[in-house]
Design a protein that fits this description.
There is one protein chain. By secondary structure, the protein is an alpha/beta fold. Helices cover 36% and strands 11% of the residues. The strands form two sheets. A three-stranded parallel beta sheet has the order 1-2-3, covered by helices on one side. A two-stranded parallel sheet has the order 4-5. The longest helix has 13 residues.
Length: 168
């Protein structure tokens, strides 16, 4: 979807040996100028990677509340002087973050949930004018009563679910 609608380059972490190495290769060794962790505490990673196993074990022992896999990779991948944006939601404590690398490489971190009240009206106006068509994101339209099933379908990535519109 991101490739066909915005020309984004896509990396599926299940299909490459190392996302970090591929990003370095794609950027001539620099790393991306900007990285976004839009996932937050529900991130998944390679089940064979030590850090992922470590995060899952700490969660099972109730010693950690979040899985900082995407944030950790963004911190390691971003170029010197780059920016990491974190609209993904974190609810608790994070462990094993390479913060020294962030500090020593002058990486800027921007965080916070999306300012819906700030952006809703101007975005809606652009949609109404036909400047932006977000309909490509919608994969399902269901009655409101189906909300629990819709959320489960989205969470489990079933039936190519990307976005559900619920109708009262």
């Amino acid at each position: 979807m991101a490739r066909s609608n915005s020309g984004a380059e896509i990396i599926n972490y299940d299909e490459v040996d190392s996302v970090l190495e591929l990003l370095k290769e794609m950027t001539g060794g620099r790393g991306p100028d900007r990285c976004i962790d839009a996932v937050g505490l529900e991130a998944n990673g390679h089940s064979h990677a030590f850090q992922y196993s470590y995060d899952r074990m700490k969660q099972a022992l109730m010693l950690e509340t979040d899985r900082p896999i995407a944030l950790r990779e963004a911190m390691l991948a971003c170029r010197n002087g780059g920016t990491i944006s974190v609209p993904g939601v974190y609810g608790g404590f994070l462990d094993k973050l390479p913060f020294g690398a962030v500090m020593n490489r002058s990486i800027t971190i921007k965080t916070g949930q999306t300012h819906v009240q700030r952006y809703l009206q101007p975005l809606l106006e652009r949609v109404q004018k036909g400047e932006v068509d977000p309909s490509f994101v919608i994969s399902h339209t269901l009655p409101l009563e189906e909300a629990p099933r819709a959320y489960e379908m989205f969470r489990k990535k079933e039936d190519h679910c990307t976005k559900v519109v619920l109708k009262p």
